[in-house]
Amino acid sequence: MLQVNATDPSRTRAKTPARTRRSGALGRSPDASPTGAGGPLPGLTEKGGTRHPGQGPAAVASFGSPPPALDGQPLRVLIADDHRLYRDGLESILAREDGIEVVGRASTGEEAVRLASELRPDLILMDLEMPVMDGVVATRRIRAAQRVRVFLLTSSDSPSDVARARSAGALFLSKSIEPSALMAKVRDVRLQRDRS
């Protein structure tokens, strides 16, 4: 029981427990990384772009509020990139929203072709430049065999790369795209699929 001293009002005040520090934007403690490695989300800057040498530490971006969950099956996504940190970063972004499921990960274009045939994804996020087989060749082979949307992501802004991506039937996206903008495009694919 709290002891009250009538002659000293200051002693009647009980200490209030310290408020628990709120977690970060991804539901983790502010010092935890989205991938559980003790660092920031790999490959993303504060504005959602890729991190390049000399730009300093990356920070977790805010991706906005997702729309209401849609009925039906989740959007099945295959990620193909030869950099594991970027693959993990993309998966962390996609995992925040209901209605999206990452069904596979590839590190080469050849592996992406094989997994696309086995897993039958609705959407492929494909790196333009990968070993063994680049993203453009892989996209052509995949789309020749099945109906699937492909986003080709690259740090290049070369007009020839844009033209190559479009000629393969893919949407060209810069890796400097903000996560919120990427998620908006992913949601569009899900909406189009569910309304078709």
Q: Would you list the SSEs in sequence order as H and E?
A: EHEHEHEHEH
CATH architecture of the domain at 75-195: 3-Layer(aba) Sandwich
Shape, per Cα inertia axes? globular
Uncertain ranges = 1-70
Helical content stands at 25-40%
- For the record, the CATH class of the domain at 75-195 is Alpha Beta
How can the largest sheet be summarized?
5 strands, parallel
Biggest sheet strand line-up? 2-1-3-4-5
Number of helices: 5
Amino-to-carboxy terminus distance: 67 Å
Structure summary, number of beta strands: 5
Structural class: alpha/beta
What is the C-alpha radius of gyration, as a whole number of Å?
Answer: 23 Å
What's the pLDDT, averaged over the residues?
A: 75
CATH superfamily of the domain at 75-195: Response regulator
Strand portion: 5-15%
> Which oligomeric state applies?
single chain
CATH topology of the domain at 75-195: Rossmann fold
Describe the structure.
The chain has five helices and five strands; from the N terminus they run E-H-E-H-E-H-E-H-E-H. With 196 residues, the protein is an alpha/beta fold. It is globular, with a radius of gyration of 23 Å. Strand 4 (149-154), helix 4 (159-167) and strand 5 form a beta-alpha-beta unit. Residues 1-70 have low confidence and may be disordered. The chain has a domain at 75-195: Rossmann fold. 32% of the residues are buried. A five-stranded parallel β-sheet has the order 2-1-3-4-5, with helices on both faces.
Question: Could you give the topology of this structure?
Answer:
Layout: E1 75-80, H1 84-94, E2 100-106, H2 109-119, E3 123-127, H3 135-145, E4 149-154, H4 159-167, E5 171-174, H5 179-195
Helix pairs in contact: 2-3
